[in-house]
Design goal:
By secondary structure, the protein is α+β, with helices and mostly antiparallel strands. It has helices spanning 24-37, 81-97, 116-134, 156-162, 182-197, 201-213, 224-228, 240-251, 271-286, 341-353, 398-414; strands at residues 7-12, 16-18, 44-47, 50-53, 56-62, 65-70, 139-147, 153-154, 170-178, 253-254, 264-270, 290-294, 298-302, 307-310, 314-318, 324-329, 358-364, 374-376, 382-392. It folds into 3 domains: 7-135 and 181-271, no CATH class; 139-178, no CATH class; 287-414, 3-Layer(aba) Sandwich (Trna Endonuclease, Chain: A, domain 1), CATH 3.40.1350.
């Protein structure tokens, strides 16, 4: 349920969104997207009177307008496509991030997600509620201050500098055991962001309760370096998932400093990477007799000062026989055509260098796998190497879709 006044636009990847520039609201949204695009953004490209989205999917919240970009892997179009692909996208993200795949991440919310944005907001709320329930971690913090009593360590040089004419004061260093530290400052900043940008009435009360119960924190400047220097120990490892979502939200929020009405929150993901990671997670979960690894690097070429390596998407190694299967995922619909020559050459090299028993390209779509997939050893003779082409039709039932992926890969290995 969206708040009153919030507009929800749904498009598919690579689709164009054209605005009526005579309309003030359309013009305002167009101008905000152009300003956000700037010199370059990978999420969409500018066209005449509008934008065309690329291979990135997710959500763009521009002021009170929510633009949802959904994946699209089949040729057929019908009125149920939006609901189908929204559900599949949300569950793909849940699978890749390691969240339980359910209709709602929190049973007491009973929330039907209006978008991927709602999913991340809900997941963040659940993580913060869990942290508060188990108790927030305190840390020892070093503090320097002027005091009227000597409690702690006297900072002699600064005491002389600041209290030369105030002999009744002491400049001291102390430590205190407090919940006011960097981890909580980041989480609190993300919670405040949620309260500003949330447009879902079902989440508003949850966010309000968290703001009341979460200890108020000092404001800090947050950027990518802030997250890169964070380390976890056995007490703070429970914060990691909440911190990952906070990082995603805070670093992808772009405030409009000129007018303050068209702030942009961009949560968009490269569909090629998401498809690869999704297939990897599904196979890791459902093929226990194989060691399933992603992005294994193997040296390929070297010059005096430079080198090149190969990195296939997924490598499966049989735990008993050590036989190797190499898979590459491609998020595009072949539409009855053959894979590109570059993709086929790449798979041939994987076959050779990984000494693979089999190699395969995995595509989404609604077609059939290609037959007669042998490489030529010479102009008139076939090689014993061949590249399978697996096409996975999407299924609105997410669990059946996962089973189909496992079934097709299993069929490859045993045929």
């Amino acid at each position: 349920m969206l708040k009153n006044g919030t507009r929800h636009i749904v498009v598919f990847e690579h689709q164009k969104l054209v605005f009526k520039l005579g309309d003030s609201d359309e013009q305002s949204l167009h101008d905000a997207l152009v300003a956000f695009h700037g010199v370059y953004t990978p999420f969409f490209k500018l066209i005449r009177h509008g934008v065309q989205f690329c291979e990135y999917v997710g959500v763009l919240q521009v002021g009170d307008v929510l633009i949802e970009v959904l994946p699209k892997a089949d040729k057929k179009e019908n009125e149920n496509d939006q609901q189908k692909w929204q559900g599949l996208l949300i569950n793909m993200i849940r699978t890749v991030w390691g969240f339980p795949v359910k209709d709602s991440g929190s049973s007491n919310l009973k929330l039907q997600h209006n978008s991927v944005l709602d999913l991340y907001f809900e997941l963040y709320i659940v993580e913060l509620e869990s942290l508060l329930h188990h108790g927030l971690v305190k840390k020892y913090l070093r503090e320097e201050k002027n005091a009227t009593a000597l409690k702690g360590k006297l900072s002699f040089s600064k005491h002389l500098q600041k209290n030369l004419v105030h002999q009744e004061r002491f400049y001291i260093e102390t430590t205190k055991y407090s919940v006011d530290h960097e981890l909580h400052q980041i989480l609190y900043a993300a919670l405040q962001l949620l309260s500003r940008v949330n447009r879902n009435n079902l989440l508003a009360s949850k966010i309000g309760n968290l703001l009341l119960n979460f200890p108020e924190q000092r404001g800090i400047k947050i950027n990518s370096f802030t997250f890169s220097r964070i380390t976890y120990n056995r007490k703070t490892i429970v914060y990691q998932r909440a911190m990952e979502i906070a990082e995603l939200l805070l670093l992808n929020y772009h405030p409009d400093f000129s007018k303050g009405r068209k702030n942009v929150l961009a949560l968009l993901f490269d569909m090629n990477v998401l498809w690869e990671q999704f297939v990897l997670r599904v196979l890791q979960k459902h093929l226990p007799t194989y060691q399933v690894s992603g992005q294994i690097t193997k040296k390929f070429w070297r010059s005096n000062n430079t080198s090149s390596a190969m990195r296939p998407d997924i490598v499966l190694v049989d735990r008993t026989t050590n036989s190797v299967v190499v898979l590459d995922t491609k998020w595009k619909n072949l539409n009855g055509y053959s894979p590109s020559p570059d993709d086929l050459r790449q798979m041939y090299i994987y076959h050779e260098y990984f000494q693979a028993k089999k190699v395969a390209l995995i595509y989404p779509g609604d077609g059939e796998a290609l037959k007669g997939q042998f490489y030529h050893r010479s102009q008139n003779a076939l090689d014993d190497k061949h590249c399978h082409v697996i096409i996975i039709p999407s299924d609105e039932n997410f669990k059946l879709w996962q089973k189909l992926i496992v079934k097709e890969v299993n069929s490859l290995m045993f045929n």
